[in-house]
Design a protein that fits this description.
Elements (H helix, E strand, L loop, with lengths): L20 H15 L12 H23 L7 H29 L1
Length: 107
């Protein structure tokens, strides 16, 4: 099975080089967004479809923010777009975390 750019899916992550600067920067933004919710109830019990619903809401909002930003209408700035992308990433991490916890429980 081939993935992005024709590379084999499921490649050995231990042989990969360090993450790109842009990936490290984005990961830091996601971590900042995750820390904002550290005092909220644990998401571990969230249903996956509920967590995915949060991603959908953020994607929908991001779409309209991008339109406003590119058309120079409204009060959308770069920070808002970056924060919205980080929110999407943090919700995706929450889903992956739940799945990973289940995977390790079953082993």
């Amino acid at each position: 099975m081939t993935g992005h750019r024709g590379k084999q899916a499921g490649h050995d992550l231990s042989k990969m080089s360090a993450p790109r600067n842009s990936a490290q920067w984005y990961a830091q933004r996601i971590e900042q967004r995750l820390k904002l919710t550290d005092d909220q109830p644990d998401y571990i019990d969230d249903r996956l479809d509920v967590a995915f619903g949060r991603i959908q809401v953020n994607l929908y909002s991001l779409f309209f923010d991008i339109l406003a930003y590119t058309e120079n209408t409204g009060d959308v700035n770069e920070k808002r777009l970056i924060d919205k992308c980080a929110d999407i990433g943090s919700n995706a991490i929450m889903i992956a975390d739940q799945v990973q916890r289940k995977q390790f429980k079953e082993k």
